[in-house]
Design brief:
This protein is α+β, with helices and mostly antiparallel strands and about 425 residues long. Helix content is about 15%, strand content about 35%. The strands form five sheets. Strands 7, 8, 9, 10, 11, 12 and 13 form a seven-stranded mixed beta sheet that branches. The two termini are about 45 Å apart.
Amino acid sequence: MGRTVVAFVVGLLAAGCAARRPRAPAREARNEEREAPSAAEATRWGFGVADLVRVELLSGGGKVRLAVPRHHWGQMVAALGSATEATEPGPSAPRSPALRFALKSGGELTLELVGREHWRLVGGDRETPLGPCPALKAAAGVALRLACASGADLIVVAKVVPRLDGGEPGLEVVRTLKGSAVAGARLSVEGEALPAPGGPDALCLALLRVESDGVGAPRTHRLLPVGTLWEHNDGSEAKLRESIPLPDAWGKAVRGLRMGLRARESEIEPGGELPVEVCIQNVGKEPIALRQHRMSVYDCYPYTRFAVKVPGGGKCELAKPVTTMDELDAPLVRTLQPGEVYIHTVRLNLWGAATLDAPTSPRGRGAFWLPGRYEINCTYSVTAGGRESAHWSGTLRASPITVRVRPERREGRDPGGLV
């Protein structure tokens, strides 16, 4: 199996020199088959894109794993397909970063950076050294951008500013590409020493993970062990914006808005983390002001609920209604320009069941513990009148998505149940 896997990618890299670079997939196209290279191109490369299950970026000794969305594989294959021939590597270095390719046959191979400009392919029990290769560096850059665009909770154009209390510098949001942050918001990045503030026009791209479920005010963390802040220019912002994946299907548009869901993982372990992106897009011709999903201080979602069909036909509703508050709080208002998308990530495994018609267990491991197929839908509903008279009101429903929970690995273990 190891020889087959290595031969598979060596053929990809070597034959790719003569292969024609496929056209990058269109932003609007979400059909994986249409975005894959043609049969003739796959034959010249010595493989078929259908053989791939997923492409991942590994960083920091495997502590961070971000999946490249399947509808971006065309860009990955185009970058890898232009790689040069293999040569001997230089001195070895720590195995980071790396790209991992999983195959339907069950095999895996990893493309690792082992020196300043040297790479190697690892598959099964064999390693194939690769010398300096600009195409591999370009492929790693493409993978990094696509993986971060998919796996980040918050992507903002920001500037580094001094803290009012004299502490470490923070970020001031200029505009948001993904996530729940409004212009002018101040962010501190836990575990990250930001550089000194630059000039008034010095901007950067910040890619962050947000801890917002089960806490009070959301906490922002760095997405990768290194590289929280990326260089900003018109080209880098446009490429990153275009790399952010959107739902495959949308619900019906209501008063200029439509909503869709995207699960970052199609399969999870019982009780495992389940990040789901709730996307609301302005499909009208005028700007629309709407309330964000979550309150600023309290972990409450007054307008948003999820309906889940569990294996065996049971149902449950996941919600975080408004509770008793010691201070005034409400979701912030956000204005969407025509075509703009507001993306908020929830980790549904941390949501409790408001109503329940499904099996439970005393171990309390969230709604997604029973092996099998789950269907998830979402409703966002704002009632007109009062303080909402100046903002969008109505009810949006997303097209349902499905997620599969794998069977429990340990035999005889109670997999837990709903909270």
